[in-house]
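ESCALATION

Customer reports they have been waiting on this structure for their group meeting. Please prioritize. Original submission:
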Amino acid sequence: MDDRLEVISDAVMKGVSRRNFIKGVIAGGAAASSATYLFRASSLLGQQPPGLGERLITLNVNGQARRVDVMKQETLAWTLRYKLGLTGTKLGCDRAECGACTVLLDDIPHYSCSILTHTVRGRKILTIEGLADPVGRLHPVQQGVIDEQGFQCAFCMSGFIMSAVGFLKTNPNPTRLQMAQGLSGNLCRCQDYDKILTAMMRGAESMRKAQHV
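Update from on-call: job pushed to the front of the queue and completed.
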């Protein structure tokens, strides 16, 4: 007999109904899941759970020094979105699987949902908001996405753009297959990968042309 069925049977023998037993298991699971995000919810409400004190640190974000209070358990994605207001960094899976939260750290793509904020002091953080030039002209990869309409819902797009920009720093003239491999850490919920690749390849071409002007 399955272990779970044995536990349920034992509970029934002891006078606990199957319905009440299952309700208790579900309630316990919900409580455990809620505890995972306790410090995050408390942060939004301006409260702090016991033992989770904040400390003021300075981050280099998009070329600017930003002072921000962070907790030891706080992720970079959370800080960027909810402390610094840089909501272009999306929270998708929140477990380093989808790539929607990708930012560049010293020009290298990283999942910001899996990096503790206090560990990146002294490093250069670049988000989607920092790609355009000082006069507001979009980065060639951003422009390529617009020109090719390389998205559907676009939730994943900022992560794809940041990954592509980081990849093109190491391989400015990739083949389509190489670009696909460079973006393999990013997922599209709409599964529109062909349009995304076309947009990124156009961005790469525009970058090369700009360098020869």
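Sent to customer with the following note: The chain has eight helices and five strands.
Escalation resolved.
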